[in-house]
Design a protein that fits this description.
Blueprint lengths: L21 H33 L13 E3 L2 E8 H13 L4 E6 L6 H15 L3 E7 L17 E6 L20 E5 L3 E5 L5 H5 L1 E9 L3 H15 L18 E6 L7 H12 L3 E6 L6 H12 L3 E7 L5 H8 L2 H6 L3 E5 L3 E2 L2 E5 L3 E5 L5 H5 L3 E7 L1 H15 L3 E2 L2 H5 L3 H10 L7
The structure holds SN-glycerol-3-phosphate.
Length: about 425
């Protein structure tokens, strides 16, 4: 009996023909995109490491800002690491009761060691010293550096500590916060991690609070410690807190799925009438945030966004570039900071409202990590934030819409091919 060859099988002895199907097509397209993304990333990383080898940082301008009084609190903005670290170490040296230090990254270098030595001295004097750092953020830091004297309480935050945690999407989060609180009365918050690199070569923004609002920072630390630290080592210290309409702390909590910092940004942008001056290290906004910024520009608000021109994460830069065309079309002004890496996470609106904190405008910070931002209602502070922004943008490039549209085809291609990665960072 003769067998009729079935569809797609070919004749006996010949190679079977691949059956065309939608699944095969989708798989092939995804495969091609993966390969193109891998090639693009490899090329960009190679170019970036060449650039890093050649680049010399020759300093950057920043204004000297005076401490301002906001209600019962004195606020000092820092735009330069050397000044900030000096103030932090001075505050640590003056501690009498407690020191709470939390840092996403804590480098084993001159500055990192300096902090460790000052903390050890205070612990020996009997001050209650607690430190938290993120396990993933400090993966490359030697274990010896992460070992502290016995009288310093340490929490190395690790999201996964049971096997089943890998099944819980809420645990794909980092402790991205940067906090220092002394005696519940002096608090530091902002973008600076701890390390020599950040001391003089990165432009970042941090805030010192002297006054009752520092108690909020203390309790944010204490709450985190008591939830994730050993139960036998609870912090029982309390600092009186009070509601303050001028200064508000906003904290993202991954396990509780509360992400008020993103909401805070959207609400403030929606309210803007005159100006939005936004600086962010990694500008990869979600659809809602982006539409809020565009809507503000459409109603006549002067929206200006400052991003690093070449950040420490080249892929993030190129993903960020993918937003610029639509921002420029919407009337948003984009500035690229070229002096050095700009790591600040700040915004000031209508010369009234400002925020300084740890949250980048990307998915990880918006709906992923533990983050902490402070929002301040104060024309005096907003005036300083404007001065800082204007200093940062004074001699930097502003993208012109036409010129940006004329960028090379391979730049446009790279942005397109990397766009699907927006949801990963
Ligand atoms: O995660 P951030 O914003 O503290 O930035 C850290 C730097 O990217 C370190 O590579």
């Amino acid at each position: 009996m003769r067998m009729m060859p079935q569809k797609g099988m070919g004749t006996p002895g010949s190679r079977p023909q691949r059956r065309f199907s939608v699944i095969w097509l989708v798989r092939s397209i995804i495969g091609v995109i993966f390969v193109l993304q891998a090639i693009t990333i490899a090329v960009l990383v190679a170019i970036s490491s060449l650039r890093k080898r050649r680049k010399q940082v020759c300093g950057f301008p920043y204004p000297n800002l005076e401490e301002v009084q906001v209600g019962e609190n004195a606020l000092q903005v820092y735009g330069y690491g050397k000044d900030l670290y000096a103030a932090m170490l001075e505050a640590i040296d003056g501690a009498r009761e407690s020191i709470y230090l939390e840092s996403f990254i804590w480098k084993d270098d001159e500055i990192g060691q300096k902090f460790k030595a000052h903390l050890a001295k205070k612990a020996d004097e009997g001050v209650d010293v607690h430190v938290i750092f993120d396990s993933f953020g400090n993966l490359v830091v030697p274990r010896a550096f992460k070992t502290f004297p016995k009288n310093i309480h340490v929490l190395e935050y690790q999201s996964f500590y049971q096997f089943w945690h890998i099944l819980d999407p809420r645990r794909y989060s980092l402790d991205h916060r940067k906090l220092l609180v002394i005696d519940g009365s002096i608090g530091f918050i902002g973008g600076f991690n701890i390390g020599s690199l950040y001391e003089t070569t990165w432009r970042d923004t941090h805030l010192r609070i002297r006054g009752p609002a520092a108690a909020d920072l203390a309790h944010s630390f204490i709450d985190f410690w008591n939830r994730f630290g050993a139960s036998a080592d609870e912090i029982t210290q309390r600092y009186p807190r009070r509601f303050d309409p001028l200064i508000n702390l906003r904290g993202n909590d991954a396990l509780r799925l509360t992400f008020p910092i993103r909401d805070m940004y959207i609400e403030a942008i929606d309210r803007a009438e005159h100006t939005i001056l936004l600086s962010n290290a990694y500008f990869v906004p979600d659809h809602v945030l982006l539409e809020a910024l565009k809507a503000a520009a459409a109603r006549g608000v002067d929206v200006r966004i400052l991003v690093p021109w070449n950040s420490n994460h080249v892929i993030a830069d190129w993903i960020s570039h993918g937003y610029f065309s639509s921002c420029l079309q919407a009337g948003i002004r984009i500035f690229g900071y070229r002096h050095t890496m700009l790591h600040a996470k700040t915004c000031t609106i209508d010369d009234r409202w400002s925020t300084i904190g740890t949250a980048n405008l990307d998915r990880l910070s918006s709906i992923g990590n533990y983050e902490i931002n402070i929002e301040i209602y104060s024309p005096e502070l907003a005036h300083q934030m404007r001065a800082l922004f204007e200093c940062d943008t004074a001699d930097e490039i502003e993208l012109a819409e036409e010129e940006w549209h004329r960028r090379s085809w391979y730049a446009k291609f790279s942005e397109r091919i990397l766009a699907p990665l927006r949801f990963m960072i």
